[in-house]
Amino acid sequence: MTSNLTIVVVEEDRDKALGIVDALRDAGAHEVFVIGNYTGLARKIALHQPDIVLIDIDNPTRDMMEELTVASGPLERPVAVFVSGSVEGLARDAIEAGVSAYVVDGLAPERLKHVLDAAIARFGMVRQMRQELAETRRALEERKVTDRAKGLLMKAKGIDEDAAYALLRKTAMDQGRKVADVAQALITAAGLLG
Prior knowledge:
This protein is of the alpha/beta class. It is built from seven helices and five strands. It is elongated and about 80 Å long.
């Protein structure tokens, strides 16, 4: 486990929370904050800006799990949820909401290090996939814009596709801009001109 993590533990039971804090400190030099109730949870978590959030909850309902998941910011940081019993479909819902680890049979201090390692690793993988997906979507959108601009140039100037792209590229280089930006400007101008 990475050392020097800021960890927020959401645990209502004080004795259990103390055991978790001790186990976390034994596992490394971590700064641990305990939140003892769910009121204003998102604000309390944001106040600490944790590297990871651990939520221990005995018998969650779907609504409670959704609220806790959203409040813990699973797209911003790893979130590990520990539940005492299994509820049909709740694990799937939690994972779809972005939870990095969903552990049934509660939070056992001796398993903490391994669960945290897995949650952090999974969060990193999912974050990387999200970034790659966003970059792929952006590249596809830029390609569509460029193709549309090439079509406008081909029609307006009576040139072929290669010449249209060369003109876009030359204009982009002359202006110190990206080809997609020049293409978007051309499409906007063409739209204004009718």
